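User: I'm designing a mutation panel for RCK C-terminal domain-containing protein and want to avoid disrupting the core. Could you give me a predicted structure to guide residue selection? Please restate the sequence first so the numbering is unambiguous.

Assistant: Good idea. Sequence first, for numbering, then the predicted structure tokens:
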Amino acid sequence: MMDRDYQPINLKDVLVEMKDISELMVDLAYSAVLFESNAIADEVIELEERMNDLVYQARITSMMSVRRLEETEPMSGLLQLAEASQRISNQAADIAKSIMRNVSFPANLRKALPEAEEATHRVVVGAASDLDGARLGDIKLQSVTGIRIIMIRRMRQRFYDPDKHAVLRAGDVLVGRGPDYGFPALCELAGQPVPDDECCDSAAISDLDRAAALMIEMKNISELSVGLAYTALLHENMDLANEVMALEEELDEMRLKLDLWTLEAAKRTDDVASLRGMLYMSSFAESISDAAGSIADVILREIDVPPIIKRIVRESDEIISWVSVHEGSPLDKKSLAESHVGTVTGMVIFAVKHGNHWTYRPGRNVCLYAGDLLVARGRRDGEEKLYGLCGADTDEIEDFEDSE
């Protein structure tokens, strides 16, 4: 029987929030492992409860929305998107619950996690600290620390993707994303001590070291797959959808290697229990990639992509941008390091197309040229700066959104 308190809601808004929450849960789950933090794990589990509510709302609203047979195919694409978000959420919650059950993770893995492309950090604003009563726009956290705030939790309220007008208060829990080297500065501003680095066993096990390094590669590939999948959906691009499926197969092979190296390491360590966490992590990364494949499958099966899907991708906390480098622009003939794209825009470039060749997760030394296509994710104000660096007219953003 339907809940009598149920009120019809906008399906787009539900799916936007599901996408945002699932991506945030992934970041927090990895962070919970890195810091072995029950507090961060608890954030993930609370977000899972919100996700469960959204899944219920999405199912009911979708069933109430379909009136004619021809509407069922576009709706199936929307439900596939919702299912992918839920799958990611469930896996992130499983990682968090393993932390709460005191499942240990190898020190090798915790040491390697900060070497991933971006780390997620959590800090509480202390009373009378530099952040207490400050506006985000005034303190320029990203410029000072390299970390951008993606969520503020105040008591039971959560504010996703806060803008420059957000005022911080003592007791606020800040969740930020950025390089590991910026975390000590963030802790200092928040009036909190910097956690001590844990020392790893000096008699490191080579198989376990290799497994930890491979786990980071799996993390990066799985997150890249999700970004590419949403880009394929946004632009109905079959080539990118096929790339997502290829990455999924590659990650399946990597998981087999990871599990083998982990089992080999078990022969030479007394702390076999800690290796169980590595197996959890490999399953987690594979599940994220599988969810990305489910998103890309909407394109591969040539399901009619309704305009609402494109609005979902564009209106989420972290938008996905697709822009070409223009001749004579500040990025033309410059490497990513020379142009300081990440610092100036806050956007993360996760794919570059030069001619017919794609480069995924481009390094700092990758040089950009006129005609290159950049795929990036970040905040909307960062997108405008990226367009400026590329020499593109920001009217192109408006034209794209109007075309939806």
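For picking mutation sites, this is relevant: The beta strands are 119-124, 148-154, 157-160, 173-178, 319-324, 334-335, 348-354, 357-360, 367-368, 373-378. The two ends are 37 Å apart (CA to CA).
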